[in-house]
Design goal:
With about 80 residues, the protein is mainly alpha-helical. It has one domain: Helix Hairpins (Orthogonal Bundle), CATH 1.10.287. The protein is built from two helices and no strands. The longest helix has about 40 residues. The radius of gyration is 22 Å and the shape is rod-shaped.
Length: about 80
């Protein structure tokens, strides 16, 4: 797969962009093109997983605030 630099989302995305550029401009031989495509698919899966984890972390941070708002009185509700 990709090197250690691709461990981060940004590194993975940068490598993926390089792969796409290579496939579009260099017209590599079939074997190399397949290898690049395979690496690219792995990077896409990694980026998707990292994004999913980030969204879950954001949701976890926002969950207590959302629960607090659910219990808050409605401003439009009559006091009696």
């Amino acid at each position: 797969m990709a090197d250690d630099k691709s461990a981060s989302f940004e590194g993975s995305l940068q490598r993926l962009e390089a792969i796409v550029k290579s496939l579009e401009t260099e017209e590599p031989e079939l074997e190399r093109a397949v290898a690049l495509y395979s690496e690219g698919r792995e990077l896409v899966a990694r980026c998707e997983a990292l994004l999913k984890n980030a969204q879950q972390a954001i949701d976890a941070v926002n969950a207590p605030a959302a629960r607090a708002l659910e219990g808050a009185p409605d401003d439009d509700a009559a006091p009696f």
